[in-house]
TrEMBL record:
<feature type="transmembrane region" description="Helical">
    <location>
        <begin position="6"/>
        <end position="26"/>
    </location>
</feature>
<feature type="domain" description="Thioredoxin">
    <location>
        <begin position="57"/>
        <end position="197"/>
    </location>
</feature>
<keyword id="KW-0201">Cytochrome c-type biogenesis</keyword>
<protein>
    <submittedName>
        <fullName>Thiol-disulfide isomerase or thioredoxin</fullName>
    </submittedName>
</protein>
<dbReference type="InterPro" id="IPR013766">
    <property type="entry name" value="Thioredoxin_domain"/>
</dbReference>
<dbReference type="GO" id="GO:0030313">
    <property type="term" value="C:cell envelope"/>
</dbReference>
<dbReference type="GO" id="GO:0016491">
    <property type="term" value="F:oxidoreductase activity"/>
</dbReference>
<keyword id="KW-0413">Isomerase</keyword>
<keyword id="KW-1133">Transmembrane helix</keyword>
<dbReference type="InterPro" id="IPR036249">
    <property type="entry name" value="Thioredoxin-like_sf"/>
</dbReference>
<dbReference type="InterPro" id="IPR050553">
    <property type="entry name" value="Thioredoxin_ResA/DsbE_sf"/>
</dbReference>
<keyword id="KW-0812">Transmembrane</keyword>
<keyword id="KW-0472">Membrane</keyword>
<dbReference type="InterPro" id="IPR017937">
    <property type="entry name" value="Thioredoxin_CS"/>
</dbReference>
<dbReference type="GO" id="GO:0016853">
    <property type="term" value="F:isomerase activity"/>
</dbReference>
<keyword id="KW-0676">Redox-active center</keyword>
<dbReference type="InterPro" id="IPR013740">
    <property type="entry name" value="Redoxin"/>
</dbReference>
């Protein structure tokens, strides 16, 4: 026991780092916190791309049948979202990167939820939707809770969480980002504002 005390006194920083590392490995919220700190630097963020040829409809056609269901069972069809800027986020409650970026998704939602030209589709992919709903309630998030009402087109989601897509008013994919990001920054709001100012 005395040897352990001596070792700890001589190696206190190593012991503290080891304990912190173990906590981060086993605790989802601790992992999310660490990822949030990295994401807040902005180095992981993507920018909204410039519009391509407006005659190119192949991407729009590839997700035309994409449908979601909200909490009361109402089906939302992607074709009903014409002339809107659409923020789509695929997430799950068990996913640390999703947890890391969700406060910024909530902040973005609060910034634009009353804008009639913007729609938020936050799509939960938990095997049991109750887990996703519980997570939102526990954290006080008010973003729309949606689940897939059919297959998710590969052009939107390839299996990596979180995945975020932004469609412009013409339905063109202007952002497709896989992995954690920070959507709560003024620089990102300016990009959204530019999309909202574009004509359909």
């Amino acid at each position: 026991m005395e040897n352990l005390k001596i070792w700890l006194r001589n190696n206190i920083s190593t012991a503290i780092l080891t304990v912190l590392f173990i906590i981060i490995l086993v605790n989802k919220d601790a992992k999310a916190w660490l990822m949030r700190q990295v994401a807040s630097t902005g180095i992981l963020n993507s920018s909204i791309a410039e519009s391509k040829d407006s005659q190119n409809t192949s991407a729009k056609e590839s997700y035309a049948g994409f449908m979601l269901k909200n909490e009361d069972g109402t089906v939302v069809n992607s074709t009903d979202l014409q002339n809107k800027v659409v923020f789509i986020n695929f997430w799950a409650s068990w996913c640390p990167p999703c947890r890391a970026e969700f406060p910024s998704v909530q902040k973005l939602y609060e910034q634009y939820k009353n804008n009639p030209d913007m729609v938020f589709l936050t799509v939960n992919l938990d095997d049991n939707a109750v887990l996703g709903k519980s997570y939102l309630k526990e954290k006080g998030f008010t973003v729309p809770f949606l689940v897939p009402a059919g297959n998710i087109p590969a052009v939107l989601y390839n299996g990596s969480l979180p995945t975020t897509i932004i469609l412009d008013k013409k339905g063109e994919i202007r952002l497709h980002h896989t992995g954690v990001a920070d959507y709560g920054k003024q620089s990102f709001y300016r990009q959204i504002d530019q999309l909202l100012d574009e004509k359909p």
